[in-house]
Amino acid sequence: MKVRPGMTHRPSHRTGGFTMVELLVAVMLIAVMMFVAVPRMMGHRKSPMAETLEALENACNEARARAILGNRPMQVVLYGAAGEILVEPAPEGVSGATNGVSMASFEAFHGPDADAARKRMPFHAKLNEDVAFRSLSVNSQNMMGADLAAIRFFPNGTSDAFVGELSQLRSGLELKRVSLEVITGRLGIEDL
Q: Is 189 helix (H, G, I), strand (E, B) or coil?
């Protein structure tokens, strides 16, 4: 290598430090990870309506899956007074689901050992206390006055007809309509 006058020759080996670009990339990665992780770690809560809709949807999905896989009708039981929901095998010999609540469901809500009875159910959830049904019908029957309402799911994937309107009690601003597609047994949710 030829050296020109006035130029000095410096060795081309690198020292052990970081370049500015490497530091910027590391800082950016940390910022992105914090942006994603911090809200989750700070207990990011869902709205009361979102919690209720999730519990209702999970119960319907559980009942439908158990009905298909177990080749036995299952039902979702809504207990309005306590704001609870259960999934259980549908009682045999009951036509329609509007009054087909089993003794096991009744005991899970009213019996002396209600807590143990609830734990034996395939699915149990408590609906958010800030959300309530404004209307509820199963197979075209108004169930607002009933203590318990049952919605059946069948082994072929179908379900009872179910339509309900949910309202957030404190604000009253969030209104949702939930309905089951009878042929597919899938829950639909829409804003009102």
A: strand
